[in-house]
Specification:
The protein is mainly alpha-helical. It has twelve helices and two strands; from the N terminus they run ββαααααααααααα.
Length: 277
């Protein structure tokens, strides 16, 4: 397991009642499953996609990239060692539990943990570095928070800020694994953030704010469908993210959307935006 990427040592779904099947589904793969549902859903419902993009004053391409990439981030909170301690799938090369970190699904649920991890660790290492002016940086952070709130709040309500430090739930290596994961996503799918738009206060208030509940609803739908293991079988095998996306996530997304009647016609994902590199 020495060559396994750090972010492939965390489970996203786990079970103990399926003999002969993988005991867990890796967190990175679940993130891609959900994103693939969003990808295919936007491409099969062009009218909705164009309406959403127009409402946000974004091109369809920029909107799709931003939406799908954000879905990949929706469960960042599951990198918390406290969350990982809820199950201990055997033989999957996962991080060991920390007995001193106890998961609190009421006060520190994984959606809140993910939002806080983004704000405290991942955002400062990324978008915050792109602007020098403090006021502009504040506006950008506010816009990104409002946007990503639609995805971190995938359990039906906004992810409120934590009242405890991240160290209650995350080890340093967990934060590093999450950092590696987002960096790998950026390398493969490209950096999606339209910073000039996101930092615009008028856009935040007049364009984005009225759309947040609809965007959150689509994120919830994508997460629900992307969690169906009949279409996204549990996988604990390490493989490149691009390989999983092409071999498993996209085919599963097409199948689940077709089964539910949400996919009315065959959809081909534009090869130009599938992956980079």
């Amino acid at each position: 397991m020495a060559d396994r990427a750090r972010y492939l040592r965390y489970w996203g779904k786990a079970r103990d009642d399926a003999p002969g099947q993988a005991p867990c589904h890796l967190l990175a793969y679940h993130a891609l499953d959900v994103a693939a549902v969003g990808e295919v859903l936007l491409r099969c419902d062009r009218q909705r996609t164009m309406r959403l993009a127009a409402s946000l004053d974004l091109t369809v391409e920029v909107f799709q990239h931003l939406f799908v990439f954000s879905l990949m981030l929706h469960d960042l909170g599951k990198f918390a060692r406290s969350f990982q301690g809820q199950a201990q799938p055997v033989g999957c090369g996962l991080v060991p539990p920390d007995p001193g970190m106890v998961y609190d699904g009421r006060q520190r649920r994984h959606d809140r943990l993910g939002a806080e991890l983004w704000r405290e660790v991942l955002y400062p290492n990324r978008l915050a570095l792109s602007v020098a002016d403090p006021m502009t940086a504040m506006d950008l952070e506010q816009g990104v928070d409002l946007w990503l709130g639609c995805f971190f709040g995938h359990h039906g309500q906004p992810a409120a800020a934590l009242s405890t430090p991240l160290t209650v739930d995350f080890r340093e290596e967990d934060c590093s694994a999450a950092e590696d994961f987002v960096t790998a996503l950026e390398a493969q799918w490209g950096v999606p953030w339209p910073c000039e738009t996101l930092k615009d206060e008028d856009w935040q208030e007049c364009r984005l704010a009225p759309m947040t509940w609809e965007l959150a609803g689509l994120a919830i739908l994508a997460d629900w469908l992307g969690s169906n293991d009949a279409f996204f079988p549990y996988c604990a095998e390490a493989m490149p993210l691009a390989e999983y996306w092409e071999r498993r996530a996209l085919p599963g997304a097409r199948q689940v959307l077709k089964q539910t009647g949400l996919l009315q016609a065959p959809v081909e994902v534009d090869p130009k935006i599938r992956t980079r590199g």
